[in-house]
Fold these 2 entries.
Entry 1:
Amino acid sequence: MGCFCLYNNRTKSDKFDFSQISIISINFDEDINKLLSLEKKSFDNKAFTLKCFTKLYNKSRKTSTFLILKYKNELIGYILAYLNDDNEGYIASLLILEEFRGKGLSSLLIDKVLELFIMSECNIDKISLHVRVTINLYSKYDFQIKDTIKKFYDKNEDAYFMVKILK
Ligand SMILES: CC(C)(COP(=O)(O)OP(=O)(O)OC[C@H]1O[C@@H](n2cnc3c(N)ncnc32)[C@H](O)[C@@H]1OP(=O)(O)O)[C@@H](O)C(=O)NCCC(=O)NCCS
């Protein structure tokens, strides 16, 4: 399990101890149960299942882009990204536990995934994702809306398809 970084100076809040944050590659067997309960707590009936996480974990292994975020050793967020069949990066999911939102933590995860995709030897020229509401978050990283996918999440919810060109 690789520990990528510790952060101590990117803060929007004085009380939160950023030195206690670590972002690491998931150790699937060790972390999956905690991740499933975080996912269920946050997404309820739209949560990824074990089967889904297992499939996407296998896809992410080539680029090691399934990362978890811990605060004081507790799992409080994750990002799951992988290389798709067209050799493009795809960010499938991003989550920060509700009480830890608004501190810039998701940006730390996005930063790390973009770095891993860019540094990989897979010659990736494009990264994409689908979002419901967090367009602003990804716009900051030069993701641009390319399409609206009707009923992507369910019959009442569309998605925006966003793309960032690397080369
Ligand atoms: C989306 C999510 C991961 C953001 O995590 P976070 O750590 O609170 O985000 P940050 O503090 O890094 O915020 C970064 C930016 O994201 C944007 N943002 C965050 N949540 C947002 C939301 N629900 N709607 C619109 N924009 C949002 C804000 O514009 C913020 O920019 P600011 O710094 O200018 O205010 C978190 O709210 C979450 O887990 N939500 C539920 C899961 C979800 O919706 N995931 C889908 C993401 S594609």
Entry 2:
Amino acid sequence: MTINEITQVPFLDLKAQYHQIKDEIGERFEDILADTGFILGKHVAEFEQGFAKLQEAKYCIGVSSGTDALHIALIALGIGHGDAVIVPVNTFIATAEAVSLCGATPLFVDCDEFSNLSVDGLGDILTLRAEGVISHPSSLSRARPWHGCGSGKRKKVGR
Ligand SMILES: Cc1ncc(COP(=O)(O)O)c(C=O)c1O
């Protein structure tokens, strides 16, 4: 074994995850294909109900992608042209892309030792110009995501 072979650890091994749930999801996919029900319908409704329950949320709306989920959430919060939204530097591009799709500007903040958005890094940027924050709630236990900074109104938008 060469040094290169030893150090090649995959960053993300989706196949390993797939093999863990292969049989379970295989049956569901067969049902969906047999029903030819690909848009909305009972399978999506079932997913929405199950996911809402898992999240202990009142509602869940299934959308076509993670990008759409972020984009729709920002639109629902009224984010638009001239706004700035804080995003972690170490996220997937879709996080910043969703902000740009609204016509707003993504502001990147560094991550902490747990790879979450750094609360310390938030300080100055938050009081300067941000309208919102996209981050994992665990990194924001000291600074809740909110909307309306700089306008004098502070509306809490996250948990
Ligand atoms: C953190 C994060 N946000 C958003 C997305 C976007 O999801 P999708 O590719 O379904 O649009 C991804 C995709 O990998 C992601 O890793």
